[in-house]
Amino acid sequence: MSEEKETQEVVLSRAKNGKRIGAFFLDVFCLFFVTFLLFASFHPVLNDLPYYEETLKVRKELQSESGLYREDGTDLVTYLKSEDSESEYPSARAKKDLLSSRIDAFYQNDTFLSKAEQEKTQQEYEVRKTEALHGQEHLFVSVDNSLTENDVNPEWLLSFYEKEANNYAQPIFVGYLPYLKTTRVIWMSSFVEALIALTLSFAIFYVVIPLTWGKRGRKTIGMKAMRVGYVTDEGLSPSSGKAILHAVFVYFVMLLLSFVSFLLPLFVSFGMMMLGKKKQNLDEYVFNWTAVDDKDQEIYLDYADFWAHEKAKKEASIENKDFQIDHPSV
Question: pTM for the full model?
């Protein structure tokens, strides 16, 4: 007597590209919104770190010594162009006098320039003054072998000093090695802070949620909202181990690599999804997963889960079925 074995296929329909793209953008929004919140919450902690406090202190001292910045760290040109400067420096003449004196002092500052560098910088500055014109009118004239400001519109002279500060004085200061080191420390600290915030946010949305709340189909928040889930070639939800490997792949290839390659992995993935025969994007192709629509169908964790659901449905069908009994007439 042969034993019959009950079999049944798990059949699911492929999710439409519109729903998948919608899920993607919703996930990206959630990812970077939470990343921003985490970054903002971490920043006060960064400011309290001793090495960071010392870096900011050194940076502020160098800015103050250069004369090119205000106490709050704003460069003079930016400040003088703002409305906040009007009360302290109400006229173009007052502004250009301030800039002129600060630039002269900076070019003679032994901290930032050696004697040879000071001499060379002053000579180049004199050449720029000699060649400075507004239309056909010289901004500077030679008096007793010394260049002085011509009697012209102060706005023209202010514009010259602003360009001098931005194009020549500021680059010299910013390139000063001790100041450059403080800039690097600040940028690297901010980069590490942002990377930590991004990693934690990614772990929440692409690891924790797919392993818990979205375990059927390894769904992210976007996939949950759009009713899209992942299944293997057996039509079942991917295992937890594969889900973690998938998240690692997405993090390093689809996310980090995209930052340094002008979004190349994302474009490749989108092209595969739109033009490929199986409509799989890059990460789905690598893991041999399929995005399916689970609006009217269930995604099962494994075959045991599938048969448990089938059994429950049969029992529910029997319990809810109405039976009619015909009584014979006497």
Answer: 0.81
